[in-house]
Amino acid sequence: MQVIAYVVFFAAFVWLVVTVKSRRRLIAVTLTGVMVMTLVGVLQPAQAQSGMLRGIQVILSVINGMIQTALTSINTVRTAENNLQQLVAWPQQLINQAKAQVTQMIGQYRTLMSNTFHVNLNSATLPNPQAFEAVIRDHQVNNFSSLTTTFGNTYGLIPVATTANPTDRAMSDMDDALALDNLKMLKASDQATDIELQSADSIENAASQAAPGSALFLTATAIVSGIHSQALTQKMLAAELRQEAARLAHRNTLRKENATHTTQLRGVLVNLLQHQ
Amino acid sequence: MTKITELPRTVKDWLLGHKLRAAILALVLVVTTPWPARAQFGLDPCCALLAAGLASVQSALTSVVGGGLNQILGVDKAMQQFQQTVVWPQALINQAKSLVGLLQGNFNQIQNLMKLPVSSATLPASQQLEQVLLSHNPNQIAQTSGAYTALYGPVPAPTAASPQVLNMVDMTDAAAQAAMKRAIEIDALADLELQAANQLNQSIQNAAPGSAPIIEAQADAWLIRANAYTQAATADLMRLRSIDLANTSADIKMGATNTTNLRQALANLLQHE
User: Fold this and answer.
1) Choosing among A39, A143, A241, which should be mutated to test the B contact, i.e. which has the most B CBs within 10 A?
2) Which of A49, A9, A47, A31 is nearest to B33 (CA)?
3) Cβ of A177 and B153 within 8 Å?
4) Which residue is closest to B205 within chain A, CA to CA?
5) B144 to chain A: which residues are within 8 Å by CB?
6) CA angle A61, A63, A68 (to 5 degrees)
7) Reported pTM
8) CB under 8 Å to A125, separation ≥6 — which residues?
């Protein structure tokens, strides 16, 4: 805009200089032209600087307005999240309280339960039953031969072939075998129970020192321990099933024999009456 | 057109003819031409304003933005420290994982205990049945009936006993055999559960706190499954005892009938004499 005004005034000045006649007028036109052209062509205050100042004010208003508000909001949210974590989700006081409770319950129950569980149950009074009872309750799995020997000493051996019929011998052998099988399995399961109790103690001890983030591992392995425990219970139930089934089968065989004997007796009696 | 082409010559002629006026024009042009503004060197009041503005921006950035970010950083640092020291402390996580490894040793011991050979029969028929019963192999379930019959005998022939007795004997054999078959199944299932439990425990050792709950959920599912199998075994045990009780009751009923029949037969016999 300034350039256009300058060009217009300069053109007018040139026209006046060209057309003026006298020297005196030339001087007057020159002086006037210089003054006017100076006014028109003088350096104007920089528009860019005033624009920059306005820009700085805009930036300041953005910083003090939008950015400050946003940062304050973020800070509020983060502070709330921090409070939520520390006061609601994982309050340090309750974590310590829980750990202290674990420790307290260990002290209250563990020894008491262990002492109760380890009360001596042996009750036999005669030498052979005493030896047998000692073996079946010793939680050891390296003396199965002693178990078989003491079992034989207490309950006797299978009759020899000349002193009992084959069915009775076989059933007696099966009954003894299943009884011994189960007694051996119970020795093993007694030892397994001891190991399970050790595992439970270890998990409980660790729980008393755990953090919320490490307790997850303890929970998971405790559940796995529970699966092991269930499997063990199932094996004991399977043994019990075998034993009960054998007992029922044994009695059923006696029933079969009774039926056969009754039929034979009835035949003998009928023959006897017919001969009279 | 001719005037335009002759204009430079006309101007030249005029300039040569009016040297003073040309000099005045040139001088005025040089002096008054508006030149582009130059950069300031600090003496201009505008520069002072600019410096003050920039200082304000710097101050605002430092106090508002820097201060706000520092507050957020402080909160984040507190959260990070809380999570690292209270919620997820690496040392305790490692300690827990180490315990999981130690417990694996206990599990292995239990598994080995359950594999100990316990067979004890001495005669052929009982050895054969015992071998099937302790096989832990579902494929041998089909051999149970043969080995059972070889030891405990078959159901008597129809002429050898009353239908009531025959029914009772057959039902009892069936219950006993089913229980033996169930025992083989349960042994095999328990072996698989132990195997799966070991796999799960090894996964826990390699897990992160965020993935451990997933393994835990699977272990929970296995525990439910194991409970179901335990219940099935318990059910078969109860069935056996129910059959046993029913047999005892049937013996009493048949005894009463037999006694009545015997009394009638004796009365008839005495009347004939």
Assistant:
1) A241
2) A9
3) no
4) A217
5) none
6) 115
7) 0.77
8) none
